[in-house]
Automatic annotation (TrEMBL):
Belongs to the class-III pyridoxal-phosphate-dependent aminotransferase family. The keyword Transcription regulation does not apply. Pfam families: Aminotran_3. This is Uncharacterized protein. The lineage of its organism: Eukaryota, Sar, Stramenopiles, Ochrophyta, Bacillariophyta. It comes from Cylindrotheca closterium.
Length: 462
C-alpha cells in the first residue's frame, strides 16, 4: 500500500490549501497528527496515546464499538435524505423528546450546532415576531452569519463587526443586547446567594430597554453551563428570574445544550435542569456529542412554536439533516449513555476530579477556582488570590508540559485564557482523573522552576 503521509507533508498541504484562520491545536510545536482513538485516549501518528481531557464530541468514547457498528450497518444499506419515510429519524426523535420535559416534543434534525442555533433563532423570530435577542457576554453559539451576531466571544475581539452602542455593551446591531456573564468568581457580583438576582437584573434591563421603545423581545439565548466563557454555571435564581422577564416581554428562552447535553453535568441529563430550579426552555438545541462525531444536531421545541414557523408558509428542507446513518449513530449514543450509566459515572468521576483539584487549591495560590459539575469542570489559574490576576502564561506553560511530557490534551478557555476546561469523553475514569491531577502537580513544579522566564514564553493556542 502507499506510504502514509508524514506530518510535514500534511502541514505543507494545509498551508497551500487551507485558510490561515482555520487553526490547529498546539501549533507552536507543529500540531499533533491524530490517527486513532479509543475510549478517553487519542493516538498520534507514532502510536503514542494521549489522555483526552477535552473532547466533548466523542461522548461515549473515541471509537466506541456500538456507535461504529451502528454506522457501518446502516451505511452499508442506505443513506439518503428525509423526504422518504425511515424508522431511524422518527425513533430518534421520540427518544430525544422522551429525554426532555413537556411540552418539548417537536424535533428537527440538522448537521451542526450552528445550524441548530440558526434554526432556533428563526423559530423564535417566527413565533414572537421580534428579532431582538438577549445574549450573554463571551457566549459562543456558532459560526454562521446569524449566529455570529449572538456570539459575543467572536465579535468582542473581531474587526468584522462594526460595533454600535447598545445599552451598556457594543453588539453588531440594536437587535442584539449583550448582558454580563453571571460569573461569581471574577465578575462584579460574587455573593453566590444574591448573584442570581443581581445578574438577572441586567436581563430585566435589556427587556425594559426594548419595551421603552415599544418593542418586544424575541429570544434569550443561553447555555445552562457556559463553556467558552470558562465553565460558568448560572447562579441560583439567575435562569428563573431572567426567563420570567424575557417571557413577560414576549420572548422565548433558547437553551443551547450543544456542549452540555446528554448527561455531561452528571446531576441532570441537560444543563438547564442543573440545580434546584428547572425552568423548561421553549427551544433546546443539541449537537456535538449527539452523533459521537457524526454530523448530527437537532432543535427541539413545542408544537405551538413549530406551528408559528409553519404559519410563515416556508417549507423546511435540510439535505443531510436526520439521514439514516447519522440517526443510527444518535440512537447508539443515547443507548450507550443509558446502558453504561454514563450520567451517573460523570457525576462520580467529576466529583472525584473536582475534590482533587480543590485539595490542590488549598495548597497553592495558582489554583484560584475549581467549579462545574460532572465532567464539565473549570480550573481557573491566577497569580494572586486577592487581585485574581489571570495566570495566562502559566496556564499555557502547564498545558504545554502536560502535552509534551505527560501526553495529556487539555483545553484553555475563559476571557483571559486562564481556565482549563475539562470536558472529556464520558468514559473518563477515576484513574484518568488521578493521573491528570498528578501530572498537573508535576507541571506546576516545573512551572516554579522556570521562575519569571515563563512570562516571556509564546502562548500555546489550544
Ligand atoms: N453552541 C455551543 C455552545 C458551542 O460550543 C458550539 C461549538 N463550539 C456551537 C454551538 C456550534 O456548533 P458547531 O461547531 O457544530 O456548529
Amino acid at each position: 500500500s502507499a506510504k502514509p503521509m508524514t506530518r510535514e507533508e500534511v502541514l505543507e498541504l494545509r498551508q497551500k490549501h487551507f485558510m490561515k484562520s482555520v487553526s490547529i491545536s498546539y501549533a507552536n510545536s507543529g500540531g499533533l497528527m491524530i490517527m486513532g482513538g479509543t475510549g478517553s485516549r487519542l493516538i498520534d501518528d507514532e502510536g503514542t496515546p494521549y489522555l483526552d481531557t477535552r473532547n466533548n464530541v466523542a461522548h461515549v468514547g473515541h471509537g466506541n464499538s456500538e456507535v461504529v457498528k451502528a454506522i457501518q450497518t446502516q451505511v452499508s444499506v442506505l443513506n439518503t435524505n428525509t423526504r422518504y419515510l425511515h424508522p431511524n429519524a422518527v425513533e430518534l426523535a421520540k427518544k430525544l423528546a422522551d429525554k426532555l420535559p413537556d411540552p418539548l416534543e417537536v424535533v428537527v434534525f440538522v448537521n451542526s450546532g450552528s445550524e441548530a442555533n440558526d434554526l432556533a433563532l428563526r423559530l423564535a423570530r417566527a413565533h414572537t415576531g421580534s428579532k431582538n435577542t438577549i445574549v450573554v457576554e463571551r457566549a459562543y453559539h456558532g459560526h454562521t452569519l446569524s449566529i455570529l451576531e449572538v456570539s459575543p466571544y467572536k465579535y468582542e475581539y473581531s474587526k468584522e463587526f462594526k460595533m454600535v452602542p447598545n445599552g451598556q455593551y457594543g453588539t453588531p446591531g440594536k437587535h442584539i443586547y449583550k448582558v454580563p456573564c453571571p460569573d461569581i468568581y471574577r465578575g462584579n457580583y460574587r455573593n453566590p446567594d444574591t448573584a442570581g438576582e443581581v445578574y438577572s437584573a441586567y436581563v430585566k434591563d435589556a427587556c425594559k430597554h426594548y419595551q421603552k421603545t415599544g418593542e418586544t423581545v424575541g429570544a434569550f439565548f443561553i447555555e445552562g453551563g457556559m463553556s467558552v466563557a470558562g465553565v460558568i454555571l448560572p447562579p441560583t435564581n439567575y435562569l428563573r428570574r431572567s426567563v420570567e422577564a424575557v417571557r413577560a416581554a414576549g420572548g422565548v428562552y433558547i437553551a443551547d445544550e450543544v456542549q452540555t447535553g446528554f448527561g455531561r453535568l452528571g446531576s441532570s441529563y441537560w444543563a438547564f435542569q442543573h440545580g434546584a430550579e428547572e425552568v423548561v426552555p421553549d427551544i433546546v438545541t443539541v449537537g456535538k456529542p449527539f452523533g459521537n462525531g457524526m454530523p448530527l444536531a437537532a432543535v427541539i421545541t413545542t408544537r405551538e412554536i413549530a406551528d408559528s414557523f409553519q404559519a410563515m408558509g416556508v417549507e423546511y428542507f435540510n439535505t443531510f439533516g436526520g439521514n439514516p446513518v447519522c440517526c443510527a449513530a444518535g440512537l447508539a449514543v443515547l443507548d450507550v449513555v443509558d446502558k453504561k450509566g454514563l450520567q451517573k459515572h460523570a457525576l462520580e468521576v467529576g466529583a472525584y476530579l473536582k475534590s482533587l483539584f480543590l485539595e490542590l487549591k488549598e495548597e497553592t495560590e495558582l489554583v484560584g477556582d475549581v467549579r462545574g459539575s460532572g465532567l464539565f469542570i473549570g480550573i481557573e489559574l491566577v497569580r494572586d488570590s486577592k487581585t485574581l490576576e489571570p495566570a495566562t502564561a502559566e496556564t499555557s506553560f502547564i498545558c504545554t508540559q502536560l502535552k509534551d511530557k505527560y501526553k495529556i490534551l487539555t483545553s484553555i478557555d475563559g476571557a483571559d485564557d486562564n481556565v482549563i476546561v475539562v470536558k472529556p469523553p464520558m468514559v473518563f475514569s477515576k484513574i484518568d482523573a488521578a493521573f491528570f491531577v498528578n501530572c498537573f502537580k508535576r507541571a506546576m513544579k516545573e512551572l516554579e522552576a522556570m521562575g519569571d522566564e515563563v512570562l516571556q514564553m509564546k502562548k500555546t493556542p489550544t
